[in-house]
Amino acid sequence: MKALVFHGPGKSSWDEVSDPAVEDPADVIVRVDTVTICGTDLHILRGDVPDVAPGTVLGHEAVGEVVEAGADVRTVRAGDRVLVSCITACGRCSYCRNRSYGQCRAGGGWVLGHTINGAQAEYVRVPFADLSVHPLPDSVRSQDAVLLADIFPTGYEVGVLNGAVRPMQTVVVVGAGPIGLAAVATAKLFSPGQIIAVDRATARLDAAERLGADTKVAAGEGPERVVSELTDGLGADVAIEAVGVAETFEMCTRMVRPGGHVANVGVHGGPAQLHLEDLWIKDVTVTTGLVDTYSTPMLLGMLRAGRLPVSSLVTHTFDLGEMEDAYDIFSRPSETRALKVVLN
Ligand code: NAD
Ligand code: ZN
Asked: Is 109 in the pocket of ligand 1 (CB under 6 A)?
């Protein structure tokens, strides 16, 4: 089969590789029909995620058809159209029993396109299928469902839920890429008082506005001053960091009000400063984490009910064989205005 293979920092190609096979009775093999590229794939290519071995097939967001199921798989069978979650979970270890699927001790967690071959391929082996793939109702389109493999659960769980967004609160989302936009869209479900989106790119701020942000602020136009003015000098109740650089994380810790929450979502390739000397007396809660995807069934229900504006995130579509072109477009968003590129 063909697959997008990582060959070390800065290098990847659409290569011929061997087909995956069931290795464990809990595995399924999925024929990939729809797949996307994630900001995290670009982090891997930049060398920010050092434990990805050259030779690994990238990708962790896909929809496809189960073509083979191991003997222990109970929830899906061959022929089912499924969403492949970016997180796989054994369902039995102490972390999985606590819904911390990302920390699965039995070989799950974020493994696809990371420590095992991923989904940017014609076929993918998905371990622990019972919890790691979700059957899709006919009414849900594959190109919409694929956005629930990673970006929507991430924006929702690591941004909005960790940030404890409540009605009438001021939520500032720094970084209006796909993840930040998913945080804007899912924060909206809690009827916040206002959502302020911060980004460097005008096209992304426009997308944030379409998804429900009340105020958009260019990164160079003093976001800290704007947040202060819009909150009577107090600061935001919740600041969600969806970039992954020290500068924006530190900005979030300055933009939050006393008693507020900073929810870091970004994957950081280096350290950021945490000014505990300021934060302790302000009672600020700082959270971070890897997505667990425990919210995926609920988000699928919202999608089915037409209450998640997922399709406005897709800017480009390609055939599966055009993976290298898709990477090229996705990695130059300031020129191409790409948000999410979908291949099918
Ligand atoms: P992205 O790169 O598409 O979006 C980042 C956005 O930040 C861009 O729109 C960019 O213009 C903006 N930006 C860059 N520098 C900025 C600055 N100084 N000020 C304001 N905005 C700035 O990435 P994405 O796919 O939306 O993902 C966001 C982050 O979330 C990434 O770091 C990604 O790796 C991470 N992520 C985390 C998890 C998790 O489980 N925690 C899962 C998936 C992705
Ligand atoms: Zn991802």
From this structure: no
Question: How far apart (Å, rounded) are the C-alpha atoms in residues 211 and 186?
Answer: 9
Question: pLDDT per residue over 269-298, tens digit each?
Answer: 889 999 999 999 999 999 999 999 999 999
Q: What's the pLDDT tens digit per position in 129-187?
A: 999 999 999 999 999 999 999 999 999 999 999 999 999 999 999 999 999 999 999 99
C-beta 155 within 6 A of ligand 1: no
* pTM above threshold 0.90: yes
Ligand 1 centroid – CA 307 distance (Å): 24
Domain that holds residue 308: 2-150+292-343
Interface predicted TM-score (ipTM) of this complex, two decimals: 0.98
For residues 135 and 64, what is the distance between their CA atoms, to the nearest angstrom? Answer: 10
Closest ligand to the CA of 334: 1
Q: 262 and 314 share a domain? A: no
What is the CATH classification number for the domain harbouring 171? 3.40.50.720
Report CA-CA distances (Å) from 126 to 67, 113, 306: 12, 11, 28
